[in-house]
Amino acid sequence: MSQDLEEVQVKPGTEADLAPLTDLYNHYVRETAVTFDTAVFTPEQRRPWLHSHPEDGPHRLLVAWTGDRMAGYATSSAFRPKPAYASSVEASVYLAPHAVGRGIGTLLYEALFAALAEEPVHRVFAGIALPNEASVRLHERFGFRRVGEFTEAGWKFGRYWDVRWYEKRLGHHPSD
After folding, report:
1. The N-acetyltransferase domain covers which part of the protein (predicted)?
2. Computed from CA positions of residues 22, 31, 140, 164, in that sequence, does the dihedral angle turn out positive or negative?
C-alpha cells in the first residue's frame, strides 16, 4: 500500500455525496459488466438508493474521499426483500478509476465490517461478475468463501456474464 492512504477519508455517505456517487456508479454502468444495470442514472433516480443506507443499522454506505475527489464507496444492502433474509446483507465496493490499486477498497471494507460488527448481521454475501480477479482477491482477503456460480446470469455488451457468489460469516443471531 502507498502513502496515498494517509490522504483518504472514509465517512458515511450523505445527500452531499449524491452527485459524485451517481457519477462513479454510472462509470461502471457505461464501461463495465461489474453491474448489470444498462442505463445510466440521474442523481434524482439514485436518491432512493442513497436513502436506503442510513448512517446506522445493517444497511450502510461508506464513501472514501481523497482531497476533493471521491475515491470510492462500499455498501451493505438488503440481500433479499423477504423478512427471513433480514439478518443477511449484500456487500459491494466501487472504486473511481484514479483510486484502483491504492488499497482504498481494503480501507472501505475494513470500515464497513467494523460498522457491521455490532449490527444483527449473520451473513454477508457478494456477487462478482466474472472475470474480476481484483474483486475476487479483495473478498477472499476479507474471509469470504466461494459458495457457487451462476453461469450466463446477465446479458450486457453483447454477451453473457457469469456471477460468482461469496459469503462471509459474521455470526450474529437475531436473538443476540
Report:
1. 8-167
2. positive
